[in-house]
TrEMBL record:
Signal peptide feature range: 1-25
Cross-referenced InterPro entries: BUG, Bug_dom1
SUPFAM superfamilies documented for this protein: Periplasmic binding protein-like II
PANTHER family reported in the protein's UniProt record: BLR1237 PROTEIN (PTHR42928:SF5), TRICARBOXYLATE-BINDING PROTEIN (PTHR42928)
Pfam families: TctC
Family stated for the protein in its record: Belongs to the UPF0065 (bug) family.
Protein name per the record: TctC
The entry's keywords: Signal
């Protein structure tokens, strides 16, 4: 009899917890939500964050406020240790994966301290050159590099960036001896190409799309698995003699570990609705950005895969861990 009563109490408690969780989820959100973006305002990632935040806020009935914290490790750590109540979100992605691959000690564990909710957008990388460079294909670049070891310069963003590591990947996969030159800004890099200080560059497509459209810069290939819908005539690096070559920058939204499953599910649904909006799709595609939501499981797998990929490349390229 005592066992039956214990079982009844346990079942009753379980039912109350389920009802309580459902009620809590139905009342969420009851106040503004903070979306922490670990870089300065104005860039393409920040534009995506603000567009998605606006759409989500309209649907949720509470504002989703973007807060820029351009000190990445501190920003990610702050969210990792925030209350897991669904009111503090993180813009995560390839940058946070790279940091986890590059740094030996961090005040958080990207795979243990977060639940990865959904991807937002992918920023394809392009191998570009000046319109008067004389290079018309990836094969031209590789042939020149092999004929002139150590003489070809490839511009990228800062050391350790996705663009920089993509150049290291190109160097390793093509078996060429080239000099990879990091720049602070895209305009500095384009200026160096025009001055013939660098022969080519790898940059995020949204940052270089204007120069490609104006034909001041030539796109030789994109580093994605498929051709970019905005530049269907430009081949991929895989099509250009490097099968399986894929490197892109991407972002998504994560929440602190311990966040209720029903809140994670609600956020994933709202992100999906925002991303699938034809209005948002059109605006982002015009900027060279491919937007696509995912399940939490898909984003988790992508993050895990990126960390492993970049860690292997960092070791192979001899880039010192920090």
């Amino acid at each position: 009899m005592r066992k039956k009563n214990s079982l009844k109490r346990w079942l009753a408690a379980l039912a109350l917890a389920a009802v309580g969780g459902l009620a809590w989820a139905q009342s969420y959100p009851s106040k503004p939500i903070q979306l922490v973006v670990a870089f300065a305002p104005g860039g393409t990632g920040d534009i995506v964050a603000r567009m998605v935040a606006q759409k989500m806020g309209d649907s949720l009935g509470q504002p989703v406020v973007v807060e820029n914290r351009p000190v990445p490790v501190a920003a990610v750590s702050m969210v990792a240790h925030a209350r897991p109540d669904g009111y503090t979100l993180l813009m995560a992605g390839s940058g946070t994966a790279l940091t986890s691959a590059l740094f030996t000690k961090l005040p958080y564990d990207l795979m243990k301290d977060f639940i990865h909710v959904s991807t937002l957008a992918t920023f394809d990388l392009a191998l570009v050159t000046d319109r008067q460079s004389g290079f018309n294909s990836v094969a031209d670049i590789i042939a020149f590099a092999k004929a002139h070891p150590g003489k070809l310069n490839i511009g990228t963003a800062r050391t350790g960036s996705t663009q920089n590591l993509a150049a290291e990947m190109l160097k390793a996969r093509a078996g060429i001896d080239v000099v990879i030159v990091p720049f602070k800004t895209t305009s500095d890099m384009v200026g160096a190409m025009r001055a013939k200080d660098v022969h080519a560059a790898i940059e995020m497509l949204p940052a270089i799309q204007g120069q490609i459209s104006s034909k001041s810069v030539k796109a030789l290939a994109v580093a994605s698995s498929k051709r970019h819908p905005g530049l269907p005539e430009i081949p991929t690096l895989a099509e250009s003699g490097m099968p399986g070559f894929e490197a892109s920058s991407w972002n998504g939204i994560a929440v602190p570990a311990g966040t209720r499953p029903e809140v994670v599910k609600r956020l994933a649904q709202e992100i999906g609705k925002a991303i699938e909006s034809p209005e948002l799709q059109g605006k982002l595609l015009a900027l060279g950005i491919a937007a696509k939501a995912s399940t939490p499981e898909q984003m988790t797998q992508r993050m895990r895969s990126d960390i492993a990929k970049w860690r292997a490349l960092i070791d192979k390229a001899g880039i010192p861990r920090q």
